[in-house]
Amino acid sequence: MKVTRRASLVVLLIVLLGGMLFAAGSEYTVVKGDTLWEIAKAYGVDWKEIAELNGITDEFALQVGTVLKIPEAYTEISVMIPNIDHEIPAVICIPNGDGPFPLVVMLHGTGSDKNEAGGGYLLAAPALAKAGIASVRFDFIGNGESTADYINYNFTSAVDDTNIAFAYAASLPRVDGHRAGIMGWSQGGTIALLAAGQNPAYKSVLCWAGAPDLSGVGSLEAYEIAKQNGYYELTFEWRSPLKLGLQWFDEAYGTDVLQVFSNSSAPVLAINGSEDTVVDPVNAQRIVDASRNEKSKVLIIEGADHTFNIFTGDMTAFNQLIEATVDWFSKTL
């Protein structure tokens, strides 16, 4: 059966837990040979939910050309999580159903936000939800919807925000905080490794182009400027500059990320693209070598760059990335 989605989405917004909950749905046009069960399976929902939503009383009498409203397999909650002197903008994606569901904390990279490059996490979170896995993604200090000053972002603040976001999501009724994983892209992978090495609550780890060494982001020359000014201005082609604070440099140069991660007993899947020129793919093996878990492994996606080709229009590599991510957490949580 071929599934085709219409561009229009039915979006329901309701106030929940101090935030906004988005229950998105799509539409499907019945073609010859379709069954309600097959359609439901393709979308990861119960066929009875489709029948109820569309007023279908005879599931064997589908008419070709009928446009069915499809309920989504998840809901998303947009919240602001308090953390002492700032708030953490976050989105929690929870599968529909009774649960409790395992949880994955998703960490973004340098200069990005909770939805990640090319909307990468907008694709990953629903994919996890359809596999019965909840997730929380959030903006680090000074990124996305965060109103805090990026100059205060550093390893310590990032790990702290990570643990606060995890604790918030894990406290929700249909979430099982005892089955928690953590993942990060690029510098988000750095923070994921640090958080896992310091917090045994994370039972599984995954890195998308994880960077155990960030000297490429902040050079020694930039470090010297930060010592003089209190910060170094980091520029990007796709967004406004960010001020890397002196504490970030002190921690980036003074922290053995892999040594910290070696304290974790969780398995790690380190994924890199073979054509990544930002984070050398050899770092995937370095991460696995630092792990104490024999189930840890490396996955190199051939032909993929640092963003797994999400901006090229060819989604082959990114789809492989999503599939590997869902499979990893399904098996380890």
Automatic annotation (TrEMBL):
<dbReference type="InterPro" id="IPR029058">
    <property type="entry name" value="AB_hydrolase_fold"/>
</dbReference>
<dbReference type="InterPro" id="IPR036779">
    <property type="entry name" value="LysM_dom_sf"/>
</dbReference>
<dbReference type="InterPro" id="IPR001375">
    <property type="entry name" value="Peptidase_S9_cat"/>
</dbReference>
<dbReference type="GO" id="GO:0008236">
    <property type="term" value="F:serine-type peptidase activity"/>
</dbReference>
<dbReference type="GO" id="GO:0006508">
    <property type="term" value="P:proteolysis"/>
</dbReference>
<dbReference type="InterPro" id="IPR018392">
    <property type="entry name" value="LysM"/>
</dbReference>
<dbReference type="InterPro" id="IPR053145">
    <property type="entry name" value="AB_hydrolase_Est10"/>
</dbReference>
<dbReference type="Pfam" id="PF01476">
    <property type="entry name" value="LysM"/>
</dbReference>
<dbReference type="GO" id="GO:0052689">
    <property type="term" value="F:carboxylic ester hydrolase activity"/>
</dbReference>
<dbReference type="Pfam" id="PF00326">
    <property type="entry name" value="Peptidase_S9"/>
</dbReference>
<feature type="domain" description="LysM">
    <location>
        <begin position="26"/>
        <end position="70"/>
    </location>
</feature>
<protein>
    <submittedName>
        <fullName>LysM domain-containing protein,prolyl oligopeptidase family protein</fullName>
    </submittedName>
</protein>
